[in-house]
Automatic annotation (TrEMBL):
GO molecular function, one term: ATP hydrolysis activity
Alphabetical list of InterPro entries matching this protein: AAA+_ATPase (IPR003593), ABC_transporter-like_ATP-bd (IPR003439), ABC_transporter-like_CS (IPR017871), Metal_Ion_Import_ABC (IPR050153), P-loop_NTPase (IPR027417)
The protein's name: Zinc ABC transporter, ATP-binding protein ZnuC
Alphabetic keyword roster: ATP-binding, Nucleotide-binding, Transport
Superkingdom, natural source: Bacteria
Occurrences of domain ABC transporter (ranges): 1-227
Bilayer-spanning residue ranges: none
Gene3D superfamilies membership: P-loop containing nucleotide triphosphate hydrolases
Amino acid sequence: MRFRSAVLGHGRRRIAGPIDFELGAREFLVVAGANGTGKSTFVRTMLGVLPPLAGSVEAKAARFGYVPQRERLDEIWPFSVLEIALMGLIPGLGPFRFFDKAARRRAETLVEEVGLGGLASRPFRDLSGGQQQRALIARALASEPDVLVLDEPTNHLDVPGERAIFELLGTIHRERPCALVVICHHLEPVLRLATRLGVLRGGALQAGSVDEVLRAGALEGLVDDGFTLRAGGARETGA
């Protein structure tokens, strides 16, 4: 995936750019930035939901899996965990076709993979926040994505829940042939896993290896919802 002098925005409103950036296969990219700097716009442009105002975004027929912010979902969904995972297989169905035994087995395997094997029949609305996030990750993985995109996947989770989600993402990164793109404002735990860091600030994207971006001071003084973004602590390579 490559951004070529891409200008990001809504309608005629320019939010960021021009951006030149390339996401390699199997990279783990963390995107940071204060509110309003264009993090969600960057992701929506990457997904093809928003066209760039200028320049281009080349995806080379990449398949995307997307995990939205959980609080944006209607929790009265009358679906089970297994049915949530099956939703990710819908694009692969032909017209007038229904889920067969192979699809259900595939969904059951994904539910097991994300750690919800004993909860396949549990209603989504009855799950904890961390369990709901795992179900949404299973849905996103169903399409065998080339790029898995997660928008604030640990919002409103406690520290153990946040740690568990990042451990799951680390396992996915190690074991699956896909790139991960994670928007996150609590950086310290996720930067232990990331291979690259991108910071949106003042309409520009500063991206590189985590160490390069930190040494350049891209996070200094950056505030998101009143929380200063820090990346303290030693990085654990290969985590």
